[in-house]
């Protein structure tokens, strides 16, 4: 396909008329489509039906150690649940705390506690003049919302297929002791689907921050969310806990994970893994927060999945549902946008998202055009702190929730919107 930027004004005008007619036709269908959030589809949720009956009577509610999981107690989680989540996270069971349904809650609480009580005896962040976080961009909007809520100044760090720009990360954390943390989605990142290289992980582990209370918030949300069964088509991620230990920085990282997109969204279990010193701090504040999380749900997960092999077998069922949807998105983009110069996109091997970069200055208009035709998409700028994309180009595509038929319609709307907005921009530049 010819690069639209090389077309004459007359050719662009003809294309605009043709595309506008197709857009109006689609718009007239009264569609109501949504690819804005990475929600599991009904088909994916149905995969875990056995969890609903794996515990069905009172006598099923006892742990391997004989604990009555219906009652209070054991706030750090069942031993068998720690073993299961530890296997998923690459952490020893004794370095894991199992919590409620959302890892985002643990992250929020961790930032909150750092503001009120500091980190391992350091000055509480609330008493400091300035607190800053590094934010790989594009990144996860809810991470940025947490730090924005607490008034943290967020600094953009560009992402590449290898991970964040580590030259910049190393320089910033070494020079500025007000930088207290960095948000990371290290495997199949949100939204690009990148996985940090071994070198990137090792450089993270070897950081020499000016702030002794600097922490890496390692949100490995998609660590087991492969799209392909073949091992050679699955991304690998170096174990950050082991690398930090080897580098003499065991306290510098918190690792978070959950089963929100493994079992049931909103009814999974979450966990944090870290050094013994960090976990002791977690335990102290948790003692004021809860007398125990949902141990029946922890037990349900253990009984259903049994072990890591059981989890991974289950995830291949998810992959079978997700892979065709990713392939649909990439096929339509290649057929309709490939070679036109109107945008680029990622081709991840796992996770929940595809990242699309339109021509600079076009993302907001594209999202608005999609909405006008009945397609809700993640707001332009959402993948950046303060919702400010300096290029106004990045758009996150979330293929998981719609049916295959709905997704095909959604992509028709999307590519037509991209073309209309982009052609208009090119015409203005002629």
Please characterize this protein's 3D structure.
The chain is of the alpha/beta class and 430 residues long. It folds into 2 domains: 4-44 and 313-429, Aspartate Aminotransferase, domain 1 (Alpha-Beta Complex), CATH 3.90.1150; 62-305, Type I PLP-dependent aspartate aminotransferase-like (Major domain) (Aspartate Aminotransferase, domain 2), CATH 3.40.640. It is built from 13 helices and 13 strands. The strands form 3 sheets. An 8-stranded mixed beta sheet has the order 2-9-8-7-6-3-4-5, sandwiched between helices. Helix 4 (103-117) runs parallel beside helix 5. The longest helix is centred in the last third of the chain and has 29 residues, at 308-336. The model has no long low-confidence stretch (mean pLDDT 97).
CA-based shape: globular
* Helicity level: 40-55%
Q: Tell me the number of structural domains.
A: 2
User: CATH superfamily assignment of the largest domain?
Assistant: Type I PLP-dependent aspartate aminotransferase-like (Major domain)
Instruction: Please report the first level of CATH classification, the CATH class of the largest domain.
Output: Alpha Beta
Largest sheet, strands/sense/barrel: 8 strands, mixed
Structural class: alpha/beta
Per the CATH scheme, the topology name of the largest domain is: Aspartate Aminotransferase, domain 2
Report, as a whole number of angstroms, the end-to-end distance.
Answer: 20 Å
Write down the overall mean pLDDT: 97
Strand content: 5-15%
Low-confidence stretches: none
**CATH architecture name of the largest domain:** 3-Layer(aba) Sandwich
Report the order of strands and helices.
HEHHEHEHEEHEHEHEEHHHEEHEEH
**How many strands in all?**
13
Helical stretch tally: 13
Rg (CA only): 23 Å
Widest sheet: strand order?
Answer: 2-9-8-7-6-3-4-5
């Amino acid at each position: 396909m010819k690069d639209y930027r090389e077309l004459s004004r007359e050719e662009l005008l003809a294309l605009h008329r043709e595309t506008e007619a197709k857009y109006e036709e689609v718009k007239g269908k009264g569609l109501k489509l949504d690819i804005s959030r990475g929600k599991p589809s009904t088909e994916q949720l149905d995969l875990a039906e056995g969890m609903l009956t794996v515990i069905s009577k009172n006598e099923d509610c006892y742990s391997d150690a004989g604990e009555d999981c219906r009652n209070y107690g054991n706030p750090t989680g069942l031993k068998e649940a720690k073993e299961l989540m530890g296997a998923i996270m690459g952490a020893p069971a004794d370095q894991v705390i199992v919590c409620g349904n959302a890892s985002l809650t643990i992250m929020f609480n961790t930032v909150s506690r750092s503001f009120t009580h500091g980190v391992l005896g350091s000055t509480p962040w609330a008493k400091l003049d300035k607190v800053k976080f590094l934010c790989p961009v594009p990144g996860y909007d809810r991470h940025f919302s947490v730090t924005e809520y607490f008034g943290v100044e967020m600094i953009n760090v560009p992402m590449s297929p290898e991970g964040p720009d580590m030259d910049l990360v190393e320089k910033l954390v070494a020079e500025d002791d007000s930088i207290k943390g960095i948000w990371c989605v290290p495997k199949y990142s949100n939204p690009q689907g990148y996985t940090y290289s071994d070198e990137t992980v090792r450089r993270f582990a070897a950081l020499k921050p000016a702030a002794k209370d600097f922490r890496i918030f390692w949100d490995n949300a998609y660590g087991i969310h492969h799209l392909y069964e073949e091992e050679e088509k699955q991304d690998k991620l170096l174990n950050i806990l082991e690398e930090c230990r080897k580098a003499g920085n065991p306290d510098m990282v918190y690792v978070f994970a959950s089963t929100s997109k493994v079992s049931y969204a909103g009814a999974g279990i979450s966990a944090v893994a870290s050094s013994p010193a960090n976990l002791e701090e977690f335990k102290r504040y948790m003692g004021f927060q809860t007398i125990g999380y949902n141990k029946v749900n922890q037990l349900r997960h253990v009984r259903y999945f049994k072990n890591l092999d059981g989890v991974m077998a289950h995830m291949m069922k998810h992959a079978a549902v997700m892979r065709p949807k990713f392939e649909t998105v990439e096929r339509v983009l290649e057929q309709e946008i490939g070679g036109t110069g109107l945008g680029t996109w990622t081709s991840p091997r796992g996770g929940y998202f595809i990242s699309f970069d339109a021509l600079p200055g076009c993302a907001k208009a594209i999202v608005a055009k999609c909405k006008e035709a009945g397609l809700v998409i993640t707001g332009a700028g959402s993948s950046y702190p303060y919702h400010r994309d300096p290029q106004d180009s990045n758009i996150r595509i979330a293929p998981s929730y719609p049916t295959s038929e709905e997704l095909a319609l959604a992509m028709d709307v999307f590519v037509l919107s991209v073309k209309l907005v982009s052609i208009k921009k090119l015409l203005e530049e002629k």
